[in-house]
Amino acid sequence: MNRKLIECVPNFSEGNNMEIIRQITEAMKTVEGISVIDVDPGKATNRTVVTMIGEPEPVCEAAFRAVKKASELIDMSKHKGAHPRFGATDVCPLIPVSGISMEETTEYARKLAKRIGEELSIPVYCYENAASSPERKNLADCRAGEYEALKERIGSEAWHPDFGPRQWNERVSKTGATAVGARNFLVAYNINLNTTSTRRANAIAFDVRERGRAQKDPVTGKPVKDGQGNAVMVPGTLKSVKAIGWFIEEYGVAQISMNLTDIGVTSVHRAFDEVCDKAQARGIRVTGSELVGVIPLQAMLDAGRYFLHKQQRSSGVSDKELIKIAVKSLGLDELYPFEPRKKIIEYILEEEAEKGRKKLVNRTLTDFADETASESPAPGGGSISAYLGALGAALGTMVANLSAHKSGWDVRWEEFSNWAEKGKEIQDQLIKLVDEDTNAFNKIMEAFGLPKQTDQEKAARRQAIQEATRFATEIPFKTMQLCYAGMEIAQAMAETGNPNSVSDAGVGALTAKAGVAGAFLNVKINAAGLDDKAFVEKILRESETILREAEQKEAAILQTVNSKI
Q1: From CA 467, how far away is CA 473, in angstroms rounded?
Q2: pTM for this model (two decimals)
Q3: Which of 162, 435, 437, 504 is catalytic?
Q4: Which DSSP state fits 87?
Q5: d(CA 486, CA 426)
Q6: Are 333 and 398 in a shared domain?
Q7: Is 5 helix (H, G, I), strand (E, B) or coil?
Q8: CB count, 10 Å around CB of 27?
């Protein structure tokens, strides 16, 4: 079962005093089981966005301690900043990451809100999925009038807090209120303009944000009201987008400050291009953009592919290259360097997990070969087979990329881009199996090392050995499947790809076929130790079929290659 992981992104109303920020984040870090993966202070906004991730219970505990520390250190009666705010801990959203539903995350958010209100005597409003009524779903409605309006609102029938005190007192005047919610992954994204005009930046923000702008009577210029007396809104062009314009003195530019509340609906690159269009229509130019906090890897890869496709170029390139294209196209490095290892959530977690452990695939070719040649039994044939398959897929991908750029073949760029993307995906999966095969072997060794004194210990040890051995059999079987899929890329490129690279397609086929055959040997030797004979019979039968078909495909590819050389 996958671990339950949630993200928490509290925003604190302090962006200048780094000692206060340090004390708040240190309070979080006193909780085991959470990772603080980003701290992003803003001077002009006088606000710091912190991102942490972990299992729900420790994340909620860390959030509570941070809210408590912020209430001790930040005085809202003295706070000024460009960003809307109404509390020392202004917002504290929980976001499901993996292994947990939005419904469960919402329950944790409401429990956290209740605890903050009761134990810290801070007014708490629940918003988004944790909202107690539809009227409170939108954060902007909960925070209307900001800190300055809170004194009147907390005692009102319509806008009293969900938890905590409902009257103004000395403590509340210092802490303000906190909004606790449960929401989808949000990307905080600012787009830079070649103007200093907040009014013009706001006009562009209203053009694109989902809420849009108030409709004006063409004669009187006054806002149009509906039958209930509410302003009639003209929606903007982008769904799931909140946006305002502001001037950032620190950089001397106006920005469109955006919250992309569902990047599956409106992506970063879609928002960027739409703002470019709307700005140009108003005589303004976008000069770059800024990512506040962190972003999922997929969002950056999608952006890289999007901009390559606009250039009619193949997108079957490395993740590193896709990220580079995304950064340059979006201008994410205009204000300061964009560091993928500090801004992309998967890379941050990967580094946390790999502390003190060096992955095989991150070693040099020489170190990898030397480690394989050493007296240690792992890495062995399974890891080598996976790496052979990865190299075979990489060669097929190379031919596809070269074909996409071949002079005179411009109309076929998308055909070859699709093949290159398939090859790159196979390559990536096989690279992961290089280390996974060694991990599988280590699991077996760990199982054999379990105590075996009592009958209960012996039974538990035997079960652990069987489970580890089955896993160690499934890994090379997966390697076989992927290596065979890599041969399909090589075959397509041998038949239809750049004829100048047909020998590379042939070598790719030979290498991938070697991966199939090598992994098959590992399937057989590991399956021999399993008690589940039905499983053994099935996996061996399927493995033999893959090997036989791989041999036939290899012969066909080589015939094609030799006919063209």
Answers
A1: 10
A2: 0.77
A3: 437
A4: B
A5: 7
A6: no
A7: strand
A8: 20
User: Which residue is catalytic, options 40, 79, 83, 207?
Assistant: 83
Is residue 351 a part of any domain in this protein?
A: no
Task: Tell me which of 305, 322, 346 is where a domain ends.
Answer: 346
How far is 41 from 48, CA to CA, in rounded Å?
4
Range of the domain at 465: 358-564
Verify whether residue 302 is a known catalytic residue: no
Q: To 10 degrees, what angle do helices 455-496 and 502-527 make?
A: 160
User: Coil, strand or helix: which one is 349?
Assistant: helix
Q: Are residues 123 and 195 in the same domain?
A: no
Beta carbons within 8 Å of 28's beta carbon, 6+ residues apart: 34, 36, 50, 52, 62, 63, 65, 66
SS3 letters across 369-425 = HHHHHCCCCCCCHHHHHHHHHHHHHHHHHHHHHHHHCCCCCHHHHHHHHHHHHHHHH
| Distance of alpha carbon 445 from alpha carbon 441, whole angstroms | 7
Residue for token digits 């959030």? 63
Strand pairing report for 5-8 and 241-248: unpaired
Strand-by-strand arrangement of the 241-248 sheet: 241-248, 253-260, 187-193, 286-292
Quick one: pLDDT band at residue 1, thresholds 50, 70, 90?
very low
Q: Domain boundary residue among 182, 201, 232?
A: 182
Q: Look up 309 and say whether it is catalytic.
A: no
**SS (HEC) of 224-248:** CECCCCCECEECCCCCCEEEEEEEE
Contact partners, residue 111, CB within 8 Å, separation at least 6: 60
Token output for 228: 């209930």
What is the predicted pLDDT for the residue at 434? 96
Q: Please tell me whether residues 222 and 171 are part of one structural domain.
A: no
> What is the token pair recorded at 245?
């314009």
What does the alpha-carbon distance between residue 545 and residue 538 come to, in Å, rounded to a whole number? 11
Q: Which of 30-34, 340-344, 483-487 has the highest mean pLDDT?
A: 483-487
